[in-house]
Amino acid sequence: MSRFVSEWSIGGSGTSTVTLNPSNATFSVTSSNPKVMRVNKVNNTQYKIFAVAPGSATITATSSKGSKVSYTYKVKPYEYPNSSRVQNGIKTTTTQNG
Fold first, then answer.
1. Distance in angstroms (rounded) separating the CA atoms of residues 74 and 90
2. Rg for the chain (alpha carbons), in Å?
3. What pLDDT digit, counting tens, does each position of 34-79 carry?
4. How far apart, in whole angstroms, are the C-alpha atoms of residue 55 and residue 45?
């Protein structure tokens, strides 16, 4: 499992797109600290994240084939750029809104 750190502003939200290999795999997604960063699965290729309060949270996407990737988000009161990352056959592209 690898980690990628992205800094966000409070109130920011974004959608991550997941590309799974093989394409018939599914995924689940969790937040280590939903009081800081909430996550909702939208469908089998996307999840939405919300920066709720200052602090850190790790979002972990796990494929049905056993691969995992984790992203650590630091929520600050100012904005940082968008992010994209590929790890363990899972590609996520996150665009921050607001």
1. 21
2. 12
3. 999 999 999 988 899 998 888 999 999 888 888 888 888 888 765 5
4. 27
